[in-house]
Amino acid sequence: MKTYLITGGAGFIGSNFIQYMFNKYKEEIFIINVDKLTYAGNLDNLKKIENLNNYRFFREDICNEKNLDKIFKIYDIDYVVNFAAESHVDRSIEDPSIFVKTNILGTQTLLEITKKYWKTKNGFKEEKKYIQISTDEVYGSLGESGYFTEKTPIDSHSPYSSSKASADLITKAYYDTYKMPINITRCSNNYGPYQFPEKFIPLIISNCINNKQIPVYGNGKNVRDWLYVEDHCVAIDLVINKGIAGQVYNIGGNNEKRNIEIVKYIICALKNKGLNVDEDLIRHVEDRQGHDRRYAIDSTKIKAELGFNTLIDFNKGMLKTIEWYLNNKEWLNKIVNGNYMNYYEKFYSKR
Ligand code: NAD
Ligand code: TYD
Description:
The protein is of the alpha/beta class.
């Protein structure tokens, strides 16, 4: 039985990953979830699996070396998957400091503890793997054409992406220096169930449901490459099992959309579901500072070397996502009525 240490497992992608893994491997795996439960961590996301015998949750900060050490002492961990991060670009523009702490120092702390428990006299224990979950945003921004490959130089712009880029480099250093078995995955924008409604797609759905204006930054022509979260989970599982130590793998949806297209698509889909919404909810607001123009991933390497393929196309993924939010209004309202509203008023009233 393999033991996984998942950090940030109460967040959007981490909670989807834990559920994906239990659906796939059932009793064959043991999962330890370490999450600080920041505003973005939500244990409601894990209700379906929280009582499993082969699951443990620890409310812990990845910067806390002493307490991480205790966890490694108790459990013989085979795989570490580091999702834990501050993940919202707009918040990083407001206040970069927590991004540096969690995303850089937290990652280095986790790497160091992992090294301590995996290192042997001559190298590292067999069949161990540390996965750093990174983002395509470390590559910076593209013009009208071209794609990010794993060879594209790092050229991050926002405090968020720069903290992730720094974390990637320190992770790479643990391979280059100690030969610690690591992989770095760089994925494009995810969407799907359990995504916190400060991010673009759930924000649009949430505002439509609550008949609120939809803030579109600038002219709405910025492009993102969207991937359904379950496809990201498939890719991570492949990298854990088949990835070559030290390698970076890009993961993309091959599905570029302008922001304004996404807004119109969701309004139309919700209308078809009987919701009384219209494009007059759209409001163009002041652009994000340093707003990256376009992200687009070339996934040739993970496809050719690890056999990755996306299973859920955009129409199917969006339908699943929209239906999930419509069927889980209680989940959404709990967030929208809580602290998130304070942030929302503070942030958008200035625009
Ligand atoms: P999220 O903000 O929804 O979740 C982050 C989780 O990390 C939360 O549960 C939070 O409580 C936890 N966390 C934060 N600081 C912590 C700390 N110091 N110690 C322990 N736990 C802490 O983020 P997400 O969208 O699920 O993203 C997960 C990872 O994937 C991040 O590393 C992000 O950079 C990366 N990523 C996200 C996307 C995307 O589109 N969402 C795309 C590519 C990569
Ligand atoms: P976001 O979900 O924050 O992801 P990222 O910036 O990490 O790609 O934003 C996706 C795109 O949507 C990005 O170009 C910014 C834009 N956006 C808006 O236009 N309005 C909004 O209210 C938000 C949150 C994002």
